[in-house]
């Protein structure tokens, strides 16, 4: 009750002296007790960590210092914090500009341990907190306010900071291929990693490539001038090759918003969290979701009930949010329920009303994937559906979305020249963002579709060679299982890294035999073919180690950037 009264006073802008005397006295007693017994409090079997957020929001500076003291003591005792608790404490420290070295470093370690899979908006907000804290600590070092031992510990912690930044790099770039970050969050990620002195050139190359696919549809007016300025500095050595991104930064500098530099990280998160902008469902949309839930609860064998529910949903389809339709299509695939006529009517509705042009890329790819899983038979309807995708929609497709589209088109044998041209043009823009499995899926799918644009295929193979060491057994199995894969093996520069990686990963005997057969049919130089065959079939050809050495010596002088 004391904390609630104090928090209420703080929200009204009242200070400690505005609180009733009995409240002030109670807080004084609490703080006196914490300051004298903080070590015992933290080491207790049931430490009062749940009170820390209340102590931060109280209208008394001393209670906030006591909350910081508890976190600092927990750091000294290496107490584990769950992810949510770590994130909450970090936000409170940053919001109140309370940065103590030991507490901040402990929270960073705890965050790195448990933050895998955290929503991107929260990861970027955490980076903002750490950047603000790191800047505060560096200011203390420069001013001489930190003791010598603390300065030494900060230097020793630099290696852990780099490990954490690499973790953040991997988490952010993994999300790029699926388009899971909007432009504001992308800029914030670049800004804060740069402030934290992260300088990995590959990371910034991927980020500017991603921005290049997004800025055409971004509004400069809603972005921060200060953030754009830091990003321009971070990417200055790359901007010459990306005139669209450079022009976007210039527009933000002219028309962007003057964001408060002292804005609390929690306020920034609330301002930019996509979850805060979801429009509530209408009554009809609620009914539609009720139908989908009932379909999900229905047994696959009960086709009569599924048909009734499908018709019930079709009666509500014109009320549905357009991107919710992927869940309707997905039900047919999940229940292995083949009713092509219903799905044909749904697609005709999208085409006749022009609603297809409002679908997001991930919705289009998910719908087509569902159609491929039930072997949808209405070829002409599917062809019209794909041809109905607008130029603007093609220009917003993300790397992972293209992989799903190509895979589904391959399964349905949709060899539509105009669509393949659009896919190729978009791949030229986003190919650097492809993860190994998505890249393998696209190469295999394009081969199945008879795609023959050598320029695009060369770019994809070069990217595969550059990232060959990241190909695991799944990605390699997808790649080598492609029909006519030998047509992709045109030169040693791109083929040798993939062959070398394949030899180092366990594959089945059947796949090994297929790879050997494909290599023998390829246009590679004879000695490369012989070396690869020896390498992939050691029982017939001798020492694997000798073959690896032969390949490495022969092709050690590959162009820059090739693994």
Topology:
Elements: H1 2-11, H2 21-43, H3 52-57, H4 61-76, H5 83-95, H6 101-114, H7 120-143, H8 148-156, H9 158-176, H10 183-195, H11 201-214, H12 225-234, H13 243-255, H14 265-272, H15 283-297, H16 303-314, H17 325-334, H18 340-353, H19 361-373, H20 379-387, H21 391-394, H22 399-412, H23 417-430, H24 436-448, H25 454-466, H26 473-480, H27 492-504, H28 509-521, H29 526-536, H30 538-541, H31 544-554
Helix pairs in contact: 2-4, 4-6, 5-6, 5-7, 7-10, 7-14, 10-12, 12-13, 15-16, 17-19, 18-20, 19-22, 22-24, 24-25, 24-26, 25-27, 27-29, 28-29, 29-31
Describe this structure in words.
The protein is globular. The termini are far apart. 37% of the residues are buried. Helix 19 (361-373) runs parallel beside helix 22 (399-412) and helix 28 (509-521) packs antiparallel against helix 29 (526-536). The protein contains 31 helices and no strands. Helices cover 68% and strands 0% of the residues. The protein has helices at residues 2-11, 21-43, 52-57, 61-76, 83-95, 101-114, 120-143, 148-156, 158-176, 183-195, 201-214, 225-234, 243-255, 265-272, 283-297, 303-314, 325-334, 340-353, 361-373, 379-387, 391-394, 399-412, 417-430, 436-448, 454-466, 473-480, 492-504, 509-521, 526-536, 538-541, 544-554. By secondary structure, the protein is an all-alpha fold.
Keywords summarizing the entry:
mainly alpha
Which percent range describes the beta-strand content?
Answer: under 5%
Described by strand count, sense and barrel closure, the largest sheet is: none
- Give the overall silhouette: globular
Q: Count every beta strand, where a strand is a DSSP E run of 2 or more residues.
A: 0
Rounded to the nearest angstrom, the distance between the terminal CA atoms is: 62 Å
**How many DSSP H or I helices?**
31
List low-pLDDT spans: 540-549
Average the pLDDT over all residues and give the rounded result: 86
From the helix content, strand content and strand pairing, which structural class follows? Answer: mainly alpha
Kindly state the percentage of residues in helix.
55-70%
Tell me the Rg in angstroms: 29 Å
């Amino acid at each position: 009750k004391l904390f609630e009264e104090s928090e209420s006073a703080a929200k009204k802008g009242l200070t400690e002296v505005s609180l009733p005397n009995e409240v002030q006295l109670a807080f004084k007693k609490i703080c006196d007790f914490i300051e004298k017994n903080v070590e015992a409090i933290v080491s207790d079997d049931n430490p009062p960590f749940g009170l820390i957020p209340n102590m931060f929001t109280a209208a008394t500076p001393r209670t906030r210092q006591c909350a910081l003291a508890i976190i600092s003591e927990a750091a000294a005792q290496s107490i584990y914090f769950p992810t949510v608790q770590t994130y909450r404490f970090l936000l409170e420290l940053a919001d109140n500009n309370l940065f103590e070295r030991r507490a901040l470093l402990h929270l960073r370690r705890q965050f790195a341990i448990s933050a895998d899979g955290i929503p991107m908006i929260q990861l970027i907000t955490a980076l903002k907190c750490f950047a603000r804290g790191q800047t505060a600590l560096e200011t203390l070092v420069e001013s001489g306010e930190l003791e010598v031992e603390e300065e030494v510990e900060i230097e020793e912690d630099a290696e852990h900071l780099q490990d954490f930044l690499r973790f953040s790099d991997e988490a952010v770039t993994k999300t790029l291929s699926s388009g899971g970050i909007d432009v504001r969050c992308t800029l914030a990620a670049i800004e804060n990693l740069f402030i934290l002195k992260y300088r990995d050139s590959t990371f910034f190359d991927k980020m500017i490539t991603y921005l290049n696919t997004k800025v055409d549809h971004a509004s400069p007016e809603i972005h921060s001038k200060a953030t754009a300025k830091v990003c321009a500095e971070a990417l200055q050595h790359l901007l010459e090759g990306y005139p669209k991104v450079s022009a976007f930064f210039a527009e933000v500098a002219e028309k962007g918003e003057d964001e408060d530099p002292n804005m609390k990280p929690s306020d920034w998160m609330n301002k930019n969290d996509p979850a805060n902008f979801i429009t509530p469902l209408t009554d009809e949309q609620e009914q539609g979701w009720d139908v989908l839930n009932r379909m999900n609860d229905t047994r696959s064998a009960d086709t009569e009930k599924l048909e009734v529910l499908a018709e019930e949903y079709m009666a509500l389809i014109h009320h549905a949010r357009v991107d919710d339709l992927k869940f309707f299509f997905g039900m047919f695939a999940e229940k292995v329920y083949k009713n092509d006529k219903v799905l044909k009517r749904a697609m005709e509705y999208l085409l006749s009303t022009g609603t297809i042009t409002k679908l997001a890329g991930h919705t289009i790819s998910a719908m087509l994937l569902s159609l491929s899983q039930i072997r949808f038979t209405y070829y002409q309807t599917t062809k019209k559906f794909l041809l109905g995708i607008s130029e603007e929609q093609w220009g917003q497709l993300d790397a992972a979305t293209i992989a799903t589209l190509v895979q589904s088109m391959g399964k349905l044998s949709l060899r539509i020249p105009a669509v393949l041209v659009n896919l190729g043009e978009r791949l030229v823009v986003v190919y650097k963002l492809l993860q190994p499995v998505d890249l393998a899926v696209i190469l295999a799918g394009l081969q199945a579709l008879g795609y023959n644009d050598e320029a695009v295929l060369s770019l994809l193979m070069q990217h595969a060679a550059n990232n060959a060491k990241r190909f695991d057994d799944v990605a390699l199995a997808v790649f080598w299982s492609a029909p006519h894969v030998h047509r992709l093996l045109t030169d040693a520069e791109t083929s040798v890294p993939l062959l070398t990686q394949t030899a180092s990963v366990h594959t089945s005997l059947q796949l090994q035999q297929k790879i050997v057969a494909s290599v023998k049919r390829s246009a590679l130089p004879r000695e490369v073919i012989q070396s690869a065959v020896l390498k992939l079939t050691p029982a017939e050809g001798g020492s694997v180690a000798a073959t690896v050495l032969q390949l490495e010596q022969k092709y050690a002088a590959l162009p820059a950037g090739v693994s």
